[in-house]
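Q: Got a minute? One more chain.
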Amino acid sequence: MVEPVGNQYVVARPVYSENLFGEEYEKVHRYHKTFLDNLKLYFRCSSQKCKRIALSLLPIASWLPAYRFKEWMLSDIVSGVSTGLVAVLQGLAFALLANVPPSYGLYSAFFPVIIYFFFGTSRHISIGPFPVLSLMVGDVVTRLVPDDLGNSTLTNVSTIDEQKVMVAASITVLAGIFQLVLGIIQVGFIVIYLSQSLISGFTTAAAIHIVVSQLKFMLQLKVPGFSGPLALIYTLKNIFEQIEKTNIADLVTSLIILIIVFVVKEINERFKAKLPAPIPIELIVTVIAAGISYACNFKDKFKVDVVGKLEQGFQAPVAPDINVFQSCVGDGFSIAIVGFAIAFSVAKVYSIKHDYLIDGNQELIAFGLSNIVGGSFKGFAASTSLSRTGVQESTGGKTQIAGFLSAIVVMIVILAIGFLLEPLQKSVLAALALGNLKGMLMQFREVGILWKKDKYDCMIWLVTFVAAVLLGLDLGLAAAVGFELLTVIFRTQFPNCTLLANVGRSNIYKNRKDYADIYEPEGVKIFRCSAPVFFANMEFFKDKLIKAVGFNPLRVLRKRNKALRKIRKMLKKGELQVTPKGFICTVNGITESDEELDNNRIEELDQPTNMADLPMQIDWNSDLPPNIRVPRIDVHSIILDFSAVTFLDVSAVRVLQQTLKEFIRINVDVYIVGVHDGFLDKLERCVFFDEELKSSMFFLTIHDAVLYILMKKDMATSPKFQTNKEKGSYDHYIINTDGGLRSREHMFPGETKF
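A: Always. Here it is, folded:
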C-alpha cells in the first residue's frame, strides 16, 4: 500500500525475500520461443507476409501511391534542381579525391541516386559522392595504380586513367556487395560498433587527408600518390620540396574561391531562417570561374590545369576486376561500413525531424545495390553528403522525387552541356572540395567537450584521429574500432565497485563516501558492483569485495581450522583446560609451526569448521589461548547489490559460489539483492544451490535485506520482538535513529515502513 503525504510517501508492505515474494504473488508462466520456433516463424509463408516483404524490399511501392502531387511536386522540383546543380559540382570535385578523371564523378552522382529512389527508405538524404569515401577509394587507386610522373605521354596517361577508373569501379562494386550481403542477413545493427566519437574523429582525420590531397591541385604540383602508414607525411614532404614550382594563378584562384565559399556558407548558416533558400555559391563561382578561364585563356596564358574534355554520354557497363577483389577485401569492407554509418546517421537525423521510420537493413540493401550499379558503370563509392542533403531538405524537398530530379539534372550535364565545364580549373574544384570541409574541421571543438563529459569517449576520438592521420584511413579505422572495443572491455573488466550506506533513515542507499548523514548497520557491509560479472572481471570483483569487507574469508577459514587442529591436539595432551570462561593454557613455550599442523592436507583447511567434538563452542572474537592467533572479524552480514549485474557467465558463477561459501563457513551471512528476471533460473541450471547456499539468501531490495538482518538481530536479543514475530506483526518495521527497529505505529511522515 502507498499513502501519499504531501510530497512524501509512505509504503507499507512485508519484508520480501525472492522466495516469499514468489509465494505471495504467483508468476505468470510465459512460453519463450526457442531458436527452432523463430526459425519456423521466419520461413513461414503467407500472402500477407509476402506482401509485407515485397513492400519492405521496394519501399517506393508504399510511399509513391500516397504522394501528394499538388502539395509536394513544386517543392520537390525546386529542391531537385538545386540539389542537382550542387551534385554536379561536387561530383567533379570529389573525383579528384578518388584520383580519377572528373567526369566519372558525374556517374557517381547519377546511378546511385536512381537506384536509391526505388529501394531507399529515407525521404530526404541526397545520395552521391562523399569526400571521405572518395578519399578512401583514392587511397586504393593510388596503391594499386601509382602515378607515372616520369613518362607522361598522352597514351600513357590515358592508359593509367583507365586503370584507375577500373580499380575505383571494382572497389565500389566490392563495397556494394558487402553492403548488400549485410542487409540480406539482417545485420544493420553493425553500425552501432562505430560510436559517434569514433565517426567524428575519423571524419576529422579524413578532412585533414582531403586538405593535403588537394594541395597539389591548388598549387599545381606534380606530387606522386603515396599510400600506407605515414602517407600524409610523405605527401607534405614532397609538396614542400617543390613548393617553389607553385603555379601562382592556380593558387590565387583557389584562395579567392575558398574565401568566397567560406564567407557565403557562413552567411547561409547565420541567416538560414531569413533566406528562402541557401545561396548556391558553388554554382555561382563555378560559372564565373569557368567563364573567366575560357575568356582569358588561362590554360595557355598561365599554364593552369583544367578539367579538360568530359566524356559525353554514358559508359558501357563493365565487369569488376577480380584481382582487385582479392587484394582489397579489407578496403572494401571499410568503405562499406563507413559509407553506411555516415548515411544512416544523417538519415536518422532527418527521419526524427520529420517523424517517419527508416529501416537500417533496407538501407544497407539500397546502398549495396546503388554501389554495385554505380561501380558497374564506372562510378565510385557513394554515400550521402551533409551539404547536399542540407540543400535538398532546406529548399523544400519532401520525398526522393527531389533526388530523382537531381539525377535528371546530372544526366543533362552528362549528355548535353558538360562541355561548358571543360575550361574550369582543377584548382577551383579543389577549393570547392575544401569548402565543404568546414563542418568536419570544426569537429576539433568536440575534444574539450568530450573530455568534460566522458574521458573514454575523448580518448576514442583522439586515438581514432591520430591513427587515421598517421596510419591511413583503412588501417586507422581498424585500429580505432579495436581501441573502442578495448575501452568497452576495460570498463567492464574494471567496474565501479562501492560500499553503500543508508541515507536519511529511509529506503535509499548511496555511496557511503558521498553523504554525511548516513547510517550503516553494525556488522553489515553493503557492496554494489555496477557491471556484468564474467570470466574477465571475476577476480577483480572478488578482490574488491575482500578489500571492502576488510578480510580474506579463505585466510580466516584456514586460520580457524588450523587453530582447531592445535586446540584438539593440546586438549589431547592436557595442555588446555576447559572452564566456564573459556580455555586456559597450562603450559608455556609451545612452538609447533603451522606447516607441521598442515600435515600436507591443505584441502581440509578449506572445509567448514567442525566443533562438534569439542566440549564447548568457540567464540572466535573472544580471547583465545596465547599461542593461538586467529584474525577477528566484526562483520556478520554482507549484502551484494546485483541490480546492475545484467549477467553472469559459468566461470563467474563457479567463482561466486566458492567465494560465498568461504564467507558462510566463517559465519558471515551473505544476501544478494536486486537480481533481474531469470537470474535465479540461471543459477539453478548451473547447480549453484546446495546445503550451504540456499535461494532464501536472495531479497528484492537492499532495504528488505537490511530489515531482515536487523529483525534477526532483534529476535536473537529481544523476547518482546520474538513474541511479536509469533503474532505475525514483524512485517512492518522501520529503521530507528539508533540503528534498531521501530514499529510502524510510531513512525513519522516520509519514513518507509516494512
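A: Residues 720-732, 743-754 have pLDDT under 50 and may be disordered.
Q: Perfect, thanks.
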